[in-house]
Design a protein that fits this description.
Low-confidence stretches: 231-237
Shape: globular
Distance between the termini: 7 Å
Number of strands: 22
Mean pLDDT: 87
Number of helices: 1
Strand order of the largest sheet: 4-3-5-9-10
Largest sheet: 5 strands, antiparallel
Length: 237
């Protein structure tokens, strides 16, 4: 049940190179993968601890920055935590995660996947963080902070699996997912209204590559039913 940071089927673990920020201080990176992360600091860090993972999201004592771009192989889970216990800090997920699966043939190479809330919600950029509740509050109205881009160069000889951090909350119009291939052709899929909780993995059903993103009625109905049912889901501590 300890918090981990990389998804590999049902097994998750800290990864070599991982670092955290606690009370504004950045830890030394881990040198190997491990079930439990033991982080050291060059300076004294005193309780109460307020920390985030990965270290790159820390902006200041009240602000974290969710990245607007992500690589196809990134499985990092964004975490935060607060503790008054000397030497111990338990992390919890700061966001929900969307799992997007695209299947096709080796002839199709996915170059980019873009995710956006259909209601214009902020999903990347600067958020204030309440360490007592681990709630994130968006503070940007910029259009650039309403879109998460995954940069890919991946053949669909094998299914493309993406794990995308999305702030918890209400998405009354759902999400739009746009997939672009090496020829600039696109496929789009929309979900219906969704409420996401921090720590929840919402797996969208696999979709087959179809240029211009026009699915038949049966395909769309199955997609919507699976998303709305919330299955499968996974809760992180």
């Amino acid at each position: 049940p300890a918090t981990k940071t990389a998804i590999d089927g049902v097994k998750v673990s800290w990864t070599a190179g991982d670092a955290i920020v606690v009370n504004g201080a950045t830890s030394s990176p881990l040198t190997e993968a491990s079930a439990v992360g033991s982080f050291s600091f060059a300076e004294i860090v005193s309780t109460p601890y307020e920390g985030v993972y990965p270290a790159s999201i820390y902006k200041d004592a009240q602000t974290v920055t969710l990245p607007s771009e992500r690589s196809a192989d990134s499985q990092t889970v964004i975490l935060g935590g607060r503790s008054e216990t000397e030497g111990q800090l338990q992390f919890s997920s700061l966001t929900a995660m969307l799992k997007v699966t695209v299947v096709g043939t080796a002839e199709t190479v996915v170059k980019k996947v873009v995710v956006a809330g259909l209601g214009g919600e902020q999903i990347v950029g600067d958020f204030t963080i309440d360490y007592s509740t681990l709630a994130l509050t968006g503070i940007s109205e910029a259009d650039a902070d309403k879109v998460l881009t995954v940069n890919c160069d991946v053949s669909l000889a094998e299914p493309l699996l993406l794990y995308l951090p999305v702030p918890a909350g209400e998405y009354p119009r759902g999400f739009k997912v746009t997939v672009t291939d090496q020829n600039g052709d696109i496929m789009t899929r929309n979900t219906s209204a969704r409420t996401l909780a921090a720590g929840q993995l919402r797996a969208m059903p696999a979709v087959s590559w179809k240029v211009n993103g026009i699915a038949d009625a049966a395909d769309f109905a199955a997609f919507a039913e699976a998303v709305n049912s919330g299955a499968p889901t996974l809760q992180w501590e």
